[in-house]
Amino acid sequence: MAGIEVTSLHKRYPDGTVAVEHVDLSIGDGELFVMLGPSGCGKTTTLRAMAGLERQTSGDIRIGDTLVNDLPPAERDIAMVFQFYALYPHLKTRDNLAFPLRAEGMPKAEIRERVDEAARMMRLGPLMDRKPHRLSGGEQQRVALARALVRRPRAFLMDEPLTNLDAELRADTRTEIKHLQAELGTTMVYVTHDQVEAMSLGHRIAILNKGRVEQVGTPLEVYNRPASLFCAAFIGSPPMNLLDVEVADGLLRAPGGLALTPPSGLRRDRPLVAGVRPEALEITPPGTQDTVPCEVVSVEVLGDEIIYVVTSGEQDVRVRMPRTVRFDPEEAVGLRHTGGPPPVYDSSTEELVA
Length: 354
Ligand code: ATP
Prior knowledge:
This is ABC transporter ATP-binding protein. The structure is a single chain. The chain is of the alpha+beta class. The chain is built from eight helices and 20 strands. The protein has helices at 43-51, 93-103, 108-121, 137-149, 167-184, 195-201, 219-224, 229-234, and strands at residues 4-12, 18-27, 32-36, 58-63, 66-67, 78-81, 155-159, 187-192, 204-209, 212-217, 241-248, 251-253, 259-260, 272-276, 281-284, 292-302, 305-312, 315-322, 332-337, 344-346. Strands 6-7-8-3-9-10 form a six-stranded mixed β-sheet, sandwiched between helices. A five-stranded antiparallel β-sheet has the order 13-12-11-14-20. Strands 15-19-16-17-18 form a five-stranded antiparallel β-sheet, with no helix packed on it. The chain is elongated. The chain starts with a strand and ends in an 8-residue tail after the last strand. The model has no long low-confidence stretch (mean pLDDT 93). Bound molecules: adenosine-5'-triphosphate.
């Protein structure tokens, strides 16, 4: 097992596209590390450089104590799982699992032991004598995961491995991957554009944007204190409210007069935006003390909770409320902030300032 160090990784493709710009990542031994970001942000390129499938323009990659820049993929002792299962169609599950070990010339008895163990971990028992065309998408992906396991690599690199599964299977397989990683304790780097997947899987998450790392943190850290306006808008569903604010009378005031608890150390000499989660706001009957008057614009019932959009000083604000609290569109309501000091950003640099 091994941690992975990426230092000043830069990748420019021959056509001039800069996919990755001086990325630094320090992934701990045994960590489940997620790289999250929108399409085209450079996640796959970074992962493929770790795997040795793409040569970086500059920068270093270390796996454990080894500088792997010049090592071909087969000598990096990692296993990759992609969004496409890439099983051999003419081989039964058992032989698909054994294939990479036979290729290494491993003794038969040891191959059998490793294949049986991987089959047990991924619950493939009844599927061992089937060829891929007789397996469902989810089963094929479990075989692909098991095939990565048998090699007992120093690290797993996964590129959107659940993309082709339906919602229920996706959630189940996600849980399996999480348990597997915890059981084996093997370092895993997992690429996804799905923030729910990132939040539920990652020990830590790196948020990438336009080839750069915008934030690295635990799921709670990135949720509670997004490091930039990009991260603030990207993490959370429904997303954070990004409200233009001014400092007045020791308070932060949003349009419409909504008062927010100010964080300490705030400077007034720049345009500010506060990031307010929908669950840090509350709507009440109109005229309630310490509220500002608003009107309900829309009501979205999501099972146990309701997302209201209300207008406050011409800004639309999302509010998350329990299902038991009911207001109708166009109804007059009161709005107040119930959370602690929100993160505040400089709207010109888009950086977190307090
Ligand atoms: P997705 O989630 O869509 O896979 P990603 O975040 O993994 O996206 P990359 O695949 O790493 O992003 O691509 C990063 C940038 O590099 C994109 O602008 C992409 O168009 C570009 N790119 C990727 N591969 C090549 C290539 N072989 N030649 C030129 N440009 C490329």
